[in-house]
Every structure is written in structure tokens, then in C-alpha cells.
Records
---
Amino acid sequence: MKFPYGPSLIIMKTLETWAEELKKSHKLIIVEGKKDKLALESLGIKKITTFSNSAYYSIENIKAKEVVILTDLDNHGKKLYSILKHNLQKNGIKIDRKFREFLSNEKITTIESITKILEN
């Protein structure tokens, strides 16, 4: 994620709006690691779980009806997203892709960078 002149005010305001929506949401948010979880928690978002190599086992334990998968948008994160999405949907869990699509459109590639953008 490179912003030659810093992130635009529109991107920052949209991220703030998304953060507020995720705070109020009943949806479980799935992230890759501890740093991503800490970044979202620093924004006041609480309903977060992390996945690592134990993702296959943990999917069976998810009781949410709908989730937001916020893995990074690098190659590893995209692969993990595909696996999680497939297995969660196979278990009847709905995937909310709107925020992930926004991040992709804005070329924001890491979840932990969201807090850095909002600090500018």
C-alpha cells in the first residue's frame, strides 16, 4: 500500500465508517494473525478470531451465521481467504465480502495497515 501524498480524506473517512460498522456488527471477523487482531481491537472492534495453520480444525467450531474474512491481500492471504471461504460456505456460513472488496479496490494490502492509515 503506497499513497504518494498520503491516503485521501475520502479513504480515511470510509475506513472510519467501516470500522464503526464492524464495531456494531454481529458478524465474526476472521483475521490471519495477532497483529491484525490487535490493529482491529485498537479501533474498538471486539468480535475477532485469528486463524493460522489450525484453520481447518477451527472452522468446525465457528457458530456464527455470517463472517467477515479479513486476511491480507497478498498471495498468502488470498489463498487463505479462498480456503476459508470455501470451507465456511460448505458449513452454511455466509461471507460478507464488502469490506474486503473495498480494501482491494483501494490497494490496501494488509489489515494492520488500516490503523496506520487512520493515524495520518
---
Amino acid sequence: MTHPDLDTLILYADGLLPAGRRKAIEAHVSACGVCELELHGLKSALDVSHDGAAAGPGEAAAGLDGIMARIERWEARRSGPEHAGAAVKLEVAREIAPYLGGRATGEILEPVADEGQDLLSTVEPVLGLFLGRKAASSLVSRIVETAIMRI
């Protein structure tokens, strides 16, 4: 299964996916450290609550506006300078997950500091064990170009 998009994660967090799709997303998220991190951040930012439903269209629109505002704040926080390390960590996770799998990627990145200063020194030796030194070096160069320089 490919990584679910933001809309799907929001529907999942709100409990609005059909049972079959929900179970598929649940299984993916439990096996994919990248998506698990993404869902956790999304739930925190949205402050998902099922305590009450809007009574009418005006309240529903206000609720939707509130959700959209929280999503925008969440995205802004993810890209803000104080969260640059976390954003880099997430991008690196997306780059290496296809090679190591979601669970292993999560395990490898867990000890990395939130600021990300030890990211490459933590990731490159592990990649070297799985891919060989030359391939790991090439992948780390790609990570620097595509994940780190973009942030």
C-alpha cells in the first residue's frame, strides 16, 4: 500500500472512512513509522474531537472553517524554523522507508534528536549495512539534495 494522502488521514482520524478502507489504513499506519508520525502530528494539530456534531449548515461550515484553520496552523508549524529538524526527519523517513520499511525507519530515526543534528551520522551507517557503503553514500547524497535542502 502506498502512503495515504492528507485527506485520507484526516478522514481516518475523524472516523469517517468505510470499514474496509479504515482497516487498510490502520494496518498501514501500524506498520509504517512515517505515516504513524504524520497521523500523530495531524491528530495533535486537529485536536480531533467527537464530543458533538454541528446542528445546522452554519455550524457545520464554522466547524469546517475551524478544521481548515487548524490544518493550516499545523502545516505552518511543520514548516516553521523551530520545527525544521522534525520536518527534515520526516522527509528523510520518506526517502529511506522504501529501502528499510516503515517500522525499521521509525526505529532508526527514533533516537535522532528533534533538531536533527545527528541525523545523517545515525542513518548512514545503518543504510551501509543494508545497501553497502557506496549505495548508502549515494542515497545519503540524494537525501541531502531532495529532503534536507528543500526544507
---
Amino acid sequence: MEANSRERIREEIMEDHLRVLVVEDVPSDAELVSRQLNKAGLPHVVRRVETREEFVSAVKSFNPDIILSDYRLPQFDGMAALALAKKLAQSTPFIVVTGSVNEETAVECMKAGASDYVLKEGIVRLGSAVRGALVRQRTLEEKQKAEAEVLRQAEDLRRSNRELEQFALIAAHDIREPLRKIVTLGDLILSRYRGDLDEVGQDYLQRMQSSAEWLAHIVEDLLRYARVVDETQSTELINLNVVVQLAISDLVEDGVESVRDINVGDLGFINGDPWRIRELLRNLLSNAIKFRKPDEPPRIKVRSRDRGDGWTELTVEDSGIGFDEKYLDRIFLPLQRLNERGKFEGTGLGLTACQRIVQRLGGTITARSTPGTGSVFVVTVPSASTRAKPDGAMAKERGSQASKLEEKKVP
């Protein structure tokens, strides 16, 4: 692809009428330069200058495609011209064309930003040097334009996603109240008029109730997800042992059983947003409990390990039903489920939220699993080194962090 691009640029250069600015005090040498460009098949027009004032004026009015400069002139010199060119025409290739230059001077020119240098005694190389400098410059410009376009498209996508997420949040809020009324009225009909309905009517009403309740679950999860992906985020020192206990308390409040089967190690500290890390742990623990084996209590371990490279590895391991790792990418997609809806609760947004939380921290989330043997979810998040604190200070911090997190609970 890059070779094709360079070949296309070479062909364009051969067809262009190049504007060549020559910094030279000897007219015959400027004519020699022009002849060599003609021999190389490079159509061009030359403007010759020999003073600083003429050079500045020509750069602004002539807008050269390339600058060819002698190294020494009576009233000017190549290094001064190069310095000016970097200020006035930074992207324009600059080649030093001189009668004599030692290796040290040549290196000095290249370090200062010259594209190349050509000795007048080897002037036959001028055409290839000019073509090479132009190809490199135009290739760089095309790359920069492509990168700018990618950044623009990425920003457009981010803006579009923000607008879509905001729309979803508004829609979820608007849908929640009518859904509550549908469920409430359905309950009233079933309790007051059950005897007036035949079996088919009762079945229809119960199916309507089930669908409405399912949609209500989706709406609630969408609202929670919208809060997770909201732009605002705080970053602070987090005591993971405090946060995981709060996540377990959330599960208890939600009526989740088997939380006593969660074994939590000494997790230490990380840097992140406390509320979002709490949501991350709540979702991972909820899944570990939800996808347990039938008639077998779940065995869940929560561990962390500071890798020593600025990142901490947090793992949630379970003994549940597991899954085939060929579906690993799919489990993090929104509203995707590997099991039938009636078999396990959930809307398929929990792991999507986990991934977004971790990505916002610059980390990663993945999983290892084998059907029938359980799963291990591995989260990488920024570490936070901290000295051991006195028990009193730790208790004070635990209470403070818990208090702040309670204020952020989703209504």
C-alpha cells in the first residue's frame, strides 16, 4: 500500500510544474541546477535569490515546492536560509547544493533540518535528491492528513455515542413510569378479576406482566449503565476491601443469596473511581453467584496482585457453569446472553458496564473459562502504593469511603 502511494506521488511530481527557489549568487550555477532538473524530467520554474530580504519575500510570494541553497554566499548563507525556511515554510523540503562541504558540515545541515545535500561536482544526483525529498514530504503530508481524518472521525464517533447514550438515558427515564403503571394495573386485574377470566385470558395477562417486568429490568439496567458511562469521573485512592464489602451489601439489598460463599482476600489499594469500582465488583460477583451449578453452592474467590509495573490484577474466580472461550468477545457486548432468558436472570448489560468502567481507567478485562469448571475474570487497573496505616486511621478511612459511596448509590 505504501509503495503504491509513493509511486503515485512520484508520477504526480513528474507532472507538476515545480516552483523551485534557488538561493545562489552565481547565475550560471542556478542555470546548472535548472538544466539538471530538466534532465531528470522535472518540469519547473526557478526563482533565484541571494539576500535575506529577497529570500523572505520569495518564500511568501512564490510559495516554493522546494528550496535549493548554496552553503556560502557573500551576503547570506545556507544555514541562515535553512533557519528562516523552518520558520516561514516549515514543510518545504530544503536541499543544500554547494561546491565544497565536509562531512561535519553536512551532518550539521541534516541535524538543522535539511532534507539532503548535493555537491556541485556530483550535480547529476540533484534530480533524484529533489524527487526523493518531495516524495518523502508529500508522503508525510498525506499521512498527517489521514491521521487528522482518523482523529476527526473518532471525535465524531465519540460525540455520536455521547448523544446516543444521552438519548437512551432520557428514553429509559420516560419509559420507566408507564412500565410501572402497566405492571401495577396488571397486578390489580389479576387480583380482582382473575375469576372473570378464563385460562387463556389469564395466560395472556401473565405473559403481558412477564414481558413488562422484563422490560422494566432492562430499563433499570440501562439507567445504571448510563450512569457508568457518564463523562464525569473521579480518581482517588480506593481501599478495595472496603469497596468489595459495599458491593456485597448491594447484592444483599437486591435479595441475592449465597453472598456468604464469597471469599475475599487482602485486596489492598488501587487508583480509580470508587462508585464505578463498586459497580464493577457488584456485577462480577452477581454473575459468579447467578451462573452457579444447579444444587451446588457457589465457591467464589476475590483476589488482587500488584504486578509491580504500575498495574494491579484483580480476579474474581467462581466454580460455576463456565462458558466456551470462543464466546469471550461476545460476553462483553451489550444485551448479549449465552443462555436462554428464562434459565438465568439478567439483561446482558452487566459485563458491558464492567468493560466500560475498566476502559475508562485505561485498564483491561478478560476471562478464562471452561464449561462445567467455572470462570476467572481478570481485571487490570492502576495500582496505588500505600504504606500500612494504623488501625484507627484505617477504620476512619473505611467509614469515610463507605459514607461517600453510600451517597452515590443509584436510586
---
Amino acid sequence: MGRGTSKAILSLLVCALAGSASQAQFGKLKKSPEPPSEEVQQVLAWLPSDTETVVVANGPFSLPDLGTRDEETPGVESFFDLEENFEALPLGLFGFKGQILSSRLLGQKVAFAIEGARHFQITEGLGTAPFEGCSIAVFQRDVSDRAAAFLKDSAKRALPSEQIEDQKVAVFQAQLENDQWTFYVDFPKPTVALACTNRDYLREVLVRMRDSRGVTALPDNLPEWKYIDTHDQFWGLRHFTKPQPGSAPAAGASVEKPTEFDAGLNGDSPAYVPDDQPIGLTFRLDPSKSRTAVLTYFSGDKDIVHKLKDSELSGSGEPEPRALDVIFSEIAPGVVSIAYHLGGSPDSVNHFLVLLGTSLGHAIFI
């Protein structure tokens, strides 16, 4: 059934959070953030122009174990525990087929990791919603030896390789619940590894790596950029696009499979924000500065704060809402920050990361 793949992708949404916070800390950044580093700008330029979501982990850090933690997993006890959970967020696609790729790269020093994604879809059954995108890792050293070992050892489990642009790309298929996923793996530079779910997305990344001129993904005039500091250790951005037929909901948590959608949101389910004017959202966290994660939600609905407080983003449901201790701040009409302080409860941790993952497009249908 592709259980290893299921665990690896679901591990994007399982880890660490809960606690208390001071409202004065949150909302718009106290000062204008510095421009993104040259490396961040370069990698963002590789992404297709219609990319809807990016999730970033700034390094250096060792590539973590992408296996799913079980119910016995203790709560967050140190900055290391917390960081390792969030380092895995942009690297989830490396964990396909029982981590045959990530196990070869385990412990290698990552300078920068990013996931770009678009076209989130409804799953055929239960599990993680399919999407088009790539996990990209930029390493501090040449990993060509690891790449060669992976390609040799995984050859019997791969489909025939494909020539995409000027690259010989390894191709794999895996079953994730009722959906069959295809994974494309490439090492276009000695220090870069890609794991993608869509041939066309990968092709455009490779083209843009050679020449990134033209329209960029998530241009810097979007309002969301004012609420991100790209020098924070972990951050993400989603700018909602007009949903395609069968697209997945935009914000919320694990839900029963929906039957009707309104502007990409499930208007019938309490798990989603009933918003017909969604613009985007951001996420930021830097454990070296604070154990508080902040989501900032943007809407054309100037009274959206009231709907957000009644939505799953308030931390309602299981575990008990008080475990997440959510704080809302209306920064401006239609712009609301939602703060979640880090804590030690495994249940609240898992709950938060499901909220975060689904808000960024990675819905899980149950």
C-alpha cells in the first residue's frame, strides 16, 4: 500500500507545540525585514511562476530522519527536538518509499531547504491530498557520492529513468492510500537534490535553474511578504489561487472528505474558515528567538477575525483548546495574526502541525 510513503509524507504534519504567550509580541514585524539572502532569492527564482505555497527551513542543519513518530513520542523537551520537527517540513518528499532517498542523505548538512507546491487536489480516498511540487535541498558539501549510491541501490525499485531537459531523472511510483503518486528524483548540481511529484513542475525548475529571468513565483509585491522575515529559521507563505475543479480546501485541519467547495474552502465543514475572499497566509517561527509560531491570515473580508476565532484555526476540537492557548491579533481589517506558543504536549503538537500543514495546502482527509 506504500505505507512507507504514507508515513513519510504524513510526517510533514506531525511534531511539536502548545503553551502561553504575550499578545504584544505578535502581529506585524516590528521593523521592515531585511531582503531575502542571495541564496533564498536564487532558489525562489527556480520555482514555477504559478507556485502557490513555499515552506522554508534555513540551515545549516543535518538532514533529519523523516520517519513518522509513534504515539509514544515525548513532547518537545529542547530546541533540538523542536527544530528537527520543522526542518522536516520542506523535505517531506524525500521520505518516499520507506525513505530510500532520505536514508542515503541522512545527517548531511543542509544549507537551505524549500518546498514549492501548487494545484492541491482532493484525494481519491483517505490520506494526504495530492499536489504538484518539489522538495529542494541545498547542501553545504558535494553529495555526488551519496547520489550515486542511491541511484545504484534503488535501481530495482525504480521505473525506467526519463530524460527531462538535460537530466537523467530517476522515477518511482508508490501507493498512498487510494492514490498512486509518482516521484521524480534528480541531482542537477553537486550540492542540490530534488524530489518532485510532477514532471512538468520538475521540468520548469530545471529550465529556471539555467535561466531564471521572467515572471517569478510569489512576487515581492504581495502583501504577505511584509509579515515574513526570511532570515527566521522557519517560514512559509501561501497565496491562494483560483481553485481548480477538485482542489483541496485552503485552511483548517483534518476533516471528513468534503463534497462541496467555495473558493477552494469547504463552506460546510467547521474545520475550514468560511471565507469567500481568501488572499493568503504566512507562517514564521525562529526557536532561537521565541517558542511562538505565528500564522498571519489575509482576506478581502474585513471582519474575518470573527470567523477565524470560530474556525479550527482557533485550536478548537481535540485536544482541549486551552492546550494550544491561541492568541488572535487583528493587525488591520482583513489581516489577522494567530499565535501558538510552543509547549510539551504531544497531542497539542500534532494538532498544531495538522493545522499548519492543511493551511499551507497539505490537507489530510479522514
